[in-house]
């Protein structure tokens, strides 16, 4: 755990009318750990930012699982030749994160509501969409454990909202909430009848929601290796329980499909996957707006002052002193 001085850009703006720029640098709190599982290292990083957002990254590194690829034979059908006589098999990694939010709820999250939000185009024409470019956000509450088994849809910018109906934002007059924002993640390639898919049923959906239970910790069950089916989420969602007033727990599944490269041998550069949590009406404004200005003492101007002055005069002369005219010419 450490505060990171990583030069993140929380916000920036340049006003073309006044030629005035404001920019801020932020810090982040990093909570991390690294686990080794046979040939792979999984590095888990939680990033907490000053704008209230939380990002999770899982970095995969280590060494490839390889087999012999005899010289002179055709390329391996299920892998890539990464070195002379060495084949690395294509494969997938899937993870599932248990999220037990509170979101300003004094009862630890009991009153929270989980919903799905998507952008939907309006019907073309008419008074509501005369230029045929209108769309709106549609929100659907997830009421039960079966209805809350959801997948990605990047075509509609789908995300999930975790809101507290008993805490209202003074500006928007809407419940305070956090958004669960998915990142790119593959579908499982194994057939549903395969042993892999039966054990890792959690990876067949990207989101599951269940009522809170302290005993439910492992989405694939407690004894995965010797099992022939999923003993976790498959069992917990079998009865299709209601999620209202149950302190809902979110299970978010994500992963990567690893098609090995020659550059992954002998030690792999990191592959990254993860997700983000961002406040939505949780604050009364941008919580990072009052970050103090920070001048970068390490940066120095490389062009002579005279050259910069002449360049600025040339731009102003060519634009007639108008930034709008300059943009129109560009």
UniProtKB/TrEMBL annotation:
Cofactor names: Cu cation
Domain Copper amine oxidase catalytic: 11-288
Protein modification: Topaquinone (TPQ) is generated by copper-dependent autoxidation of a specific tyrosyl residue.
Gene Ontology molecular functions: copper ion binding; primary methylamine oxidase activity; quinone binding
Matches recorded under PROSITE patterns: COPPER_AMINE_OXID_1
Keyword list, A-Z: Copper, Metal-binding, Oxidoreductase, TPQ
Entry keyword Metal-binding: yes
Name the UniProt record assigns to this protein: Amine oxidase
Lineage: Eukaryota, Viridiplantae, Chlorophyta, core chlorophytes, Chlorophyceae
């Amino acid at each position: 755990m450490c505060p990171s001085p990583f030069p993140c850009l929380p916000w920036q703006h340049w006003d073309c009318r006044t030629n005035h720029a404001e920019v801020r640098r932020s810090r982040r709190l990093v909570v991390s750990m690294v686990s080794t599982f046979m040939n792979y290292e999984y590095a888990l990083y939680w990033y907490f930012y000053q704008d209230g957002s939380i990002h999770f990254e899982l970095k995969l590194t280590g060494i490839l699982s390889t087999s012999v690829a005899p010289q002179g034979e055709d390329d391996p059908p299920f892998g890539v030749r990464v070195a002379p006589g060495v084949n690395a098999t294509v494969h997938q990694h899937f993870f599932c994160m248990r999220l037990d939010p509170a979101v300003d709820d004094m009862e630890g999250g009991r009153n929270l509501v989980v919903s799905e939000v998507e952008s939907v185009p309006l019907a073309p024409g008419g008074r509501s969409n005369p230029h045929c470019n209108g769309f709106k956000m549609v929100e659907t509450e997830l009421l039960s454990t079966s209805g809350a088994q959801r997948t990605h849809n990047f075509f509609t910018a789908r995300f999930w909202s975790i809101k507290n109906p008993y805490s209202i934002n003074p500006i928007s007059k809407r419940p305070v909430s956090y958004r669960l924002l998915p990142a790119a993640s593959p579908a499982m390639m194994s057939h549903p009848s395969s042993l892999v898919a039966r054990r890792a049923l959690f990876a067949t959906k990207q989101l599951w929601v269940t009522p809170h239970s302290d005993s439910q910790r492992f989405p694939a069950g407690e004894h995965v290796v010797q099992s022939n089916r999923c003993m976790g989420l498959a069992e917990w969602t079998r009865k299709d329980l209601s999620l209202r007033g149950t302190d809902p727990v979110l299970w978010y599944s994500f992963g990567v499909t690893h098609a090995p490269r020659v550059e992954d041998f002998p030690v792999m550069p990191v592959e990254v996957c993860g997700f983000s949590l961002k406040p939505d009406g949780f604050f009364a404004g941008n919580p990072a707006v009052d970050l103090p200005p920070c001048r970068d003492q390490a940066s120095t101007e490389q062009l002579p002052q005279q050259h910069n002055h002449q360049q600025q005069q040339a731009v102003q002369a060519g634009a007639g002193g108008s930034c709008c005219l300059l943009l129109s010419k560009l």
